[in-house]
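Quiz preparation item.
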């Protein structure tokens, strides 16, 4: 065998194994999570839609998310030395447009 044949065979072997390992790594989580996904689909069919307890404003964003965002803004402003309450939360109403 010549040197070129040995190098070509080695490269094909290395890249072939890399492709095989990549394929296994992509397929393995799908196979391992299959029973959990099937179980969750069965539960989803049995459970009726339950209204959530979280309050939502006119934009449809839950109140907990708005409170968390406001707390993050306040913490950042305090870290920069800005007095508390220097910002205002404004909501924008969506305009309902008819589909064409």
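Solution:
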């Amino acid at each position: 065998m010549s040197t070129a044949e040995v190098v070509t065979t080695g490269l094909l072997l290395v890249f072939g194994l890399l492709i095989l390992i990549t394929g296994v790594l992509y397929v393995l989580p799908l196979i391992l999570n299959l029973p959990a996904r099937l179980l969750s689909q069965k539960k989803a069919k049995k459970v009726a839609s339950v209204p959530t307890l979280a309050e939502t404003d006119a934009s449809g964003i839950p109140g907990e998310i708005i409170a968390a965002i406001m707390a993050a803004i306040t913490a950042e402003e305090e870290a920069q030395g800005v007095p508390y309450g220097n910002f205002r939360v404004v909501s924008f109403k969506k305009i309902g447009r008819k589909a064409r």
